[in-house]
Amino acid sequence: MASQYTPETLQKISELLTKNPEYYTVWNYRRQVLRHEFTQAASSDSAEAAADRITTLIKNDLLFLMPLLRSFPKCYWIWNYRLWLLDEAKRLLPLSISRRIWEEELALVGKMLRLDSRNFHGWGYRRVVVDTLETLTSEEQGESMAQAEFEYAKKMIGTNLSNFSAWHYRTKLIQRLLNEKSATDAERRKMLNDGQTMAPNLSQSERLDYVRQEIEEIQDMLDGAEDCKYIYQALIDCTLLASKIQGTMSSDDQQKVLSWISELKKMDPLRRGRWLDFERSLCA
């Protein structure tokens, strides 16, 4: 079997995926070839040599993906495989090297969002990268990136006030920032009233109207982006928030959430168990 996992095999896989990156079984085979290469590298005489070889393998494969992402920016399987490579860096490499690779990925996402600042998929991917970077720190360095990301979203909104993707990203950060700072009620009201968010200090009915409007805006984004899992996740988040404001979830909202979960089970097979658990909790 090992004889099948050769550089020549990897080259043939690359040629096939360049023509059509939708072959998810081919991506899985590519993983097997890379795992074999990682195992071979790990058998090196020194840990340093092993880390150097694995780093080269991962970086070369990340580079291979770049032209594919430019040609097929909405192909889920490319993004899924890219995250797998980055997770392998986290699993196999020393902390300092792994963190540098993930920092380079954050810079790449920044460039991508400068080219298309309203790309909802890009904002969702940025959140995944930031969440991971927050775990890739020593105990002495460990700190939240919420404030820095809040300022980043503010800057992006400043360049385009109609950038709803940036507004949504920022809205998700507000509650976390307030909790991290153990904000008082007065401080919470100040943040909601000082123009730093779309939602001022609203009544319950006004708050519900705002969330419903946000849901409509996100649903509009589905047109032409039906394969972007982050849109479905945002729809679920906002619908759960609306239900919390109302104190109950309507049967109509429940059916919508279940339909979105059904899409996520197909689009996000690695987290299928999570979506099944969520589905069961809604139906309980």
From TrEMBL:
SUPFAM superfamilies named in the record: Protein prenylyltransferase (SSF48439)
Q: Might you give the EC number(s) for this enzyme?
A: 2.5.1.60
Question: Enzyme class, one word?
Answer: transferase
Entry superkingdom: Eukaryota
One Pfam match: PPTA
Which keywords has UniProt assigned to this entry? Prenyltransferase, Repeat, Transferase
What does the record give as the reaction this protein catalyses? geranylgeranyl diphosphate + L-cysteinyl-[protein] = S-geranylgeranyl-L-cysteinyl-[protein] + diphosphate
One GO term (biological process): prenylation
Alphabetized InterPro entries for the sequence: Prenyl_trans_a (IPR002088)
Gene Ontology MF annotations: Rab geranylgeranyltransferase activity
Q: Matching PANTHER family, A to Z?
A: GERANYLGERANYL TRANSFERASE TYPE-2 SUBUNIT ALPHA, PROTEIN FARNESYLTRANSFERASE ALPHA SUBUNIT/RAB GERANYLGERANYL TRANSFERASE ALPHA SUBUNIT
Tell me the function of this protein: Catalyzes the transfer of a geranyl-geranyl moiety from geranyl-geranyl pyrophosphate to cysteines occuring in specific C-terminal amino acid sequences.
Which family is this protein grouped under?
Belongs to the protein prenyltransferase subunit alpha family.
What this protein is called in its record is: Geranylgeranyl transferase type-2 subunit alpha
Q: Which organism is it from?
A: Aspergillus oryzae (strain ATCC 42149 / RIB 40)
